[in-house]
Amino acid sequence: MTEEKKQVLIIEDEPDLSAVFVNLLEVFGFAGSVADTAQLALDSLTQRQFDLFIIDLTLPDRPGLDLYKEIVTIYPEYQGKVIFTSGFNVSDELNQIMKRDGASFLAKPFSMDKLKKVLDRWM
Q: DSSP labels for 46-65?
């Protein structure tokens, strides 16, 4: 009997980085799907369930934090099941959300080891 892979929705507008995430998630035993805008991510949630989200803080159609807040307002069961990513410093608002919800942060650029360390809590 094979264990079903945990489903991760990657919300990232850089195609090369999305492909890296999908490939590394596969190596670590996860299945990754990609949405390159906040709206596509919300559309994906109407079609299937996910175990974890990787959300870029800078998306073309709205900030990643705003997307996360909208997701957990509609689907409270997803609270804290997120890894935020950014090449910028962590804001006070993001720090508050990470403490309150138990969310994680992965600074860009990142190594395979750093991604694995952040994913370990969901394995």
A: TT---SEEEEESB-SSSBHH
Confidence tier at 123 by pLDDT (50, 70, 90)? confident
- pTM here is 0.94
Tens digit of each residue's pLDDT (9 = 90 or more) over 53-98: 999 999 999 999 999 999 999 999 999 999 999 998 889 999 999 9
The strand pairing partners of 55, in sequence order, are 11, 84
**What domains sit in the chain, N to C, each tagged with a CATH number?**
6-122 (3.40.50.2300)
SS3 content of the chain, % helix, strand, coil (to 5): 45, 25, 30
Which two tokens mark 81? 């099941």
DSSP state of 40: H
CA atoms within 13 A on the CB side of 66: 9
Cα–Cα distance for residue pair 2/19, rounded to 1 Å: 25
| Residues 17/41, Cβ–Cβ less than 8 Å | no
